[in-house]
Design goal:
This protein is of the alpha/beta class. It contains 23 helices and 20 strands. Strands 6-5-4-7-8-10-9-11-12 form a 9-stranded mixed sheet, sandwiched between helices. The chain has a 4-stranded antiparallel sheet with strand order 14-19-16-17. The protein has a 3-stranded antiparallel sheet with strand order 1-3-2. Helix 11 links the parallel strand 4 and strand 5. Helix 5 runs antiparallel to helix 7, helix 8 crosses helix 9 and helix 8 runs antiparallel to helix 12. The protein starts with 8 loop residues before the first strand and ends with a helix.
Length: 668
């Protein structure tokens, strides 16, 4: 039963966004606060709440004031989103986006909404139409953008294919173009025109805006968004890498966030007039995008292009093109950016600031800014590029073009930024501290080695398979299931899925079992052992429990801990003798029932666990020792470079007891 259509519906994740808290916090409110509103629609696993009830509860309990950390969405935007919530699962995200844009643009044109799709129930379509029709026309652009942003966030593939509204990269490019008044603003891979329209929102007033893209659906959405925002936008469906449909186009500002990893097919690139600085390699279009923007810049124009960081240092044809760009003064600045600027990828990006070739390039320089460790570069880059004083807050360097060329035109900012002189006293301190760390690690290693002194030979083991241990009632085994088979699980539990890679890499989160779900049969218990046999056999103890095993993960529960310790079970399953059970033509895997566990008395199982832990500590301390030795070596060479005087290190370790004390200390 759908609530009164004048009342908005929101999901738990929507409530988290409104309040500026995590989804876990909303889950706790629902469980522990009896006054929290009850669901009014949806299902047990996908509940929907009344927006007005939730807003009233947040105000009454002060949650909004104390927890609010983000800008609260508009009430009418949340109403539209609440209506679209009813379509999730019925339509793909991109088709839901087209629906809301079609309804909104029909309203601005005063026409009738004709969206005939048998997958959309008539009452839900009526609800979507109703909430949009009662929204003020001047707000329709903002409302539609909010829906697009939420849809792209909920389904990353949509944003990756069409472009992200409200992404950090969009904000970065829009800020860079926001000061343009008059002239031409151009985006050669505009997608849904996210950067172009955001630039206008932030103050850009170009005389003409041009957008090209290869995706017809993206351009259709871009056209509808431009209409809703009242912006004139020249759009063209084209693959700019394969053809230059407007060779005479000259732009004052070009913003570009191209698709990454695109290959260049065919031989047209060999004779393309745009590629004055070198033929881009077939394997990567990154340098083709750079040259396309330069070819379409006005004499005093600037292009702001995002690329993967690899374009800054890869050799071969890309390296030669990079050198030509630097040689002709086309590279004005490079900004190294942090990872996770895009919702669908964590790779670090680079911003290229490009211009037309400079007549006297040899006397020019390149500005390098290393913003890889900054929190919000999207709001600061525009200022850094224009204000030398503002750059003092971020690592940067201005390097002569001749120096860049001499270094094979490597453009990674940290290659140039980290050129500050070091104080000799700092170098001496680093050398002393490095040796101190080494001696401390050597003491730890001695303590670990002493823990092996009491180990003797173990009792003769009785080898049993997992299948036999299950038959004897020592183990209970359950197979994990695909993520989409957990649709019956509550939303909070679907965030607890443990994958085979989690087991292999040791990335299980310590969640614990929520008392509300402690009877949910699929959840692991504290002490359960999770096992994967794909490619390699790995087993880990789920110390806190509360996970849902996914495909390729088995859950083993020790029913008789007088016979078998969970920790020992995890160790034994990973034993080398079980590798012989691996088989398969494409993916190597073993039958978990065949895996062998050598049983010894419980006390010896615990000793073996301690021994394995000690060996792990040996690995860790050895790795620490290698890092510390590297740091000492660096400090030693720095001492030569910066004329630092080094003191002889104290590398005496002595013997230690189990408490880590020197013999002399224990005798005091």
């Amino acid at each position: 039963m759908i609530q009164n259509r004048d009342e908005g519906l929101v999901s738990p994740s929507d409530i988290a966004d409104i309040a500026g808290v995590s989804r876990g916090a909303v889950s706790n409110w629902r469980k522990r606060d009896g006054s929290f509103p009850q669901p009014v629609a949806g299902s047990a696993t996908k509940p929907l709440f009344s927006l007005s009830d939730v807003s009233g509860w947040l105000e009454a309990t002060g949650k909004r004031a104390t927890a609010h950390r983000v800008e609260e969405p508009r009430a009418d935007a949340m109403e539209v989103w609440a209506a679209l919530n009813l379509l999730r699962g019925s339509l793909p995200a991109e088709e839901i986006a087209e629906l809301v844009l079609t309804v909104a643009t029909s309203r601005t044109e005063g026409g009738h909404v004709d969206f005939d799709d048998e997958r959309i129930p008539a009452d839900i379509l009526e609800r979507v139409v109703h909430v949009i029709e009662k929204t003020d026309r001047t707000d329709l652009g903002e409302i539609a953008d909010f829906a697009l942003e939420r849809l792209a966030r909920s389904q990353g593939k949509m944003g990756a294919d069409l472009g992200f509204v409200g992404s950090r990269t969009t904000t970065l490019l829009a800020n860079l173009a926001s000061t343009l008044h008059g002239g031409v603003l151009y985006d050669p891979a505009c997608g849904i025109a996210a950067a172009l329209l955001d630039a206008v929102k932030l103050g850009a007033r170009p005389a003409r805006m041009v957008g090209h893209d290869i995706n017809p659906r993206a351009l259709r959405i871009a056209s509808q968004r431009a209409e809703l925002h009242g912006v004139d936008l020249d759009l063209a469906l084209t693959n700019v890498l394969a053809e230059d449909i407007d060779p005479t186009l000259r732009a004052d500002v070009i913003v570009l966030e191209p698709p990454f990893g695109v290959r260049l097919e065919g031989t047209a690139r060999l004779t393309d007039a745009r590629f004055d600085f070198g033929t881009p390699p077939r394997s990567s279009a990154d340098t083709a995008w750079l040259q396309h923007t330069i070819a379409h810049l006005a004499d005093d124009g600037r292009a702001y292009v995002l690329s993967p960081a690899g374009t800054l240092f890869r050799s071969g044809e890309e390296g030669r093109i990079r050198a030509e760009l630097v040689k002709h003064g086309c590279v004005e600045a490079i900004v190294g950016l942090p990872g996770k600027l895009l919702p669908h990828t964590s790779i670090p990006l680079a911003l290229w600031v490009l211009r037309r070739p400079v007549p006297e390039a040899a006397i020019e320089s390149v500005l390098f800014i290393d913003a890889a460790e900054t929190v919000s570069p999207e709001h600061n880059v525009a200022t850094w590029l224009t204000d030398a004083n503002a750059r003092e807050s971020v690592p940067h360097a201005v390097v002569a073009i001749t120096d860049v060329l001499a270094a094979e035109s490597l453009l990674t900012p940290h290659r140039w930024v980290d050129r500050t002189e070091r104080e000799p006293s700092d170098v001496a301190d680093a050398y002393r501290q490095g040796w101190s760390a080494i001696t401390d690690t050597m003491r730890k290693l001695q303590n670990v080695l002493k823990s092996f002194e009491h180990f003797a030979s173990f009792s003769k083991s009785r080898v049993m398979t997992v299948s036999e241990l299950v038959d004897q009632g020592v183990l209970d085994m359950r197979m994990g299931r695909p993520k989409d088979r957990y649709e019956d699980a509550p939303e909070e539990l679907r965030e607890r899925i443990a994958t085979a890679s989690d087991v292999r890499d040791g990335t299980l989160r310590e969640l614990g079992i929520d008392t509300e779900y402690d009877d949910y049969p699929e959840l692991t218990w504290e002490g359960d052992v999770l096992v994967t046999t794909m490619n390699t056999i790995r087993a880990r103890v789920d110390e806190a429990g509360g996970h849902l095993p996914s495909t390729g993960v088995y859950r083993l529960r020790v029913l008789d801990r007088e016979v078998l310790s969970p920790g020992y079970l995890a160790i034994a399953l990973s034993g080398s003798w079980n590798d012989r059970f691996q088989g398969g033509t494409t993916i190597q895997r073993a039958s978990i029932k065949d895996l062998e566990v050598p049983l010894v008395p419980l006390t010896e199982q615990r000793d073996i666990q301690l021994a394995v832990l000690s060996i792990q500590l040996l690995h860790e301390h050895s790795a620490d020792m290698a890092e510390e030795a590297s740091a000492v070596g660096t400090a030693l060479l720095d001492a030569v470079r910066y004329n630092a005087r080094l003191a002889n290190p104290d590398i005496s370790v002595g013997t230690t007891d189990q408490d880590g004390l020197n013999d002399s200390e224990g005798a005091k």
